[in-house]
Specification:
mainly beta; about 45% strand; globular
């Protein structure tokens, strides 16, 4: 769960490009939660080594979620990376809106956004055995 929303973040078996409705348990008939309707999650980069915040992880999996409604005035992105035997090691979320800015603005997201937010969380350290 994130806040009060109950997301389905992982499904099994894990397969490259497998998709599922991550918002299946969210009451999207509630107008305040309607934006979460039919968010599709996808597995990418299964068992891929990655270095995050200077730490190497031999086997990771990336999960992206979208609601396929990106357009010229808004951008939503969610990505989370899990490392085998550790758990979540990276998370990035963008909810951006152009507002009154010109839709022909050549700048990439998030520079072109007038409002919204971006957040990034990265593993600082972890210990699995004999930790002091």
């Amino acid at each position: 769960m994130e806040g009060e929303e109950r997301w389905v973040k992982l499904v099994f078996p894990i397969r490259e490009n497998a998709t599922w409705n991550g918002s299946a348990y969210i009451n999207t008939t509630d107008p305040t939660l309607a934006a979460y309707e039919n968010w599709q999650f996808t597995y990418l980069n299964i068992n891929t080594p990655q270095t995050i915040n200077g730490q190497s992880f031999a086997e990771t999996i990336t999960i992206e979620r979208t609601n396929n409604d990106e357009n010229l005035v808004e951008k939503k992105l969610y990505k989370e990376v899990y490392a085998k035997g550790i758990g979540s090691v990276y998370k990035e979320e963008w909810v951006l809106n152009l507002g009154g800015n010109d839709i022909t603005n050549p700048q990439p997201w998030p520079q072109r956004a007038e409002r919204g937010y971006t957040t990034t969380s990265k593993v600082l350290s972890y210990c699995l055995q004999n930790c002091d």
